[in-house]
Design brief:
Elements lengths: L10 E3 L2 E2 L15 H14 L4 E4 L4 H6 L13 E5 L5 H11 L3 E5 L4 E5 L6 E4 L1
Parallel strand pairs: 5-7
Antiparallel strand pairs: 1-2, 3-4, 4-6, 5-6
Helix pairs in contact: 1-3
This protein binds zinc ion (2 copies).
The site of one zinc ion has 5 residues, from strand 4.
Amino acid sequence: MQMLNQINDIIISPHFNLSEFACPCCKKVMLHPLLLEKLERLKKILERPIHITSGYRCFAYNRKVGGVANSYHCIGLAADIKVKDINLIELLAYAEEIDFTGIGFYEKKNFLHLDVRPTQRTRWKE
Ligand SMILES: [Zn+2]
Ligand SMILES: [Zn+2]
């Protein structure tokens, strides 16, 4: 069924497609508009493509990748990103400018976790 390949293949903002946020195992997806809006703003100041390495995760997939049990990825509030040709510290400074409420700095794996949790501003490093 060729048409199943098109599932979630929908342009949802100037630089993102819904499929980029879908769970890799089941293609289910949840995405908060505020997360998308902030990622668009980040993309605008970066002037480089943002690669979403993990968006929505179903609970099974979240367990598989060792995510925390109450992960914001499981409710569509978080995305992990990689950006080429920019070091992670510089990328962090840009993300701080957009003021995501949750920012995780993953030095060894070279990515940032960004989320729009409705609670307290949280920062961590791994
Ligand atoms: Zn899944
Ligand atoms: Zn994450």
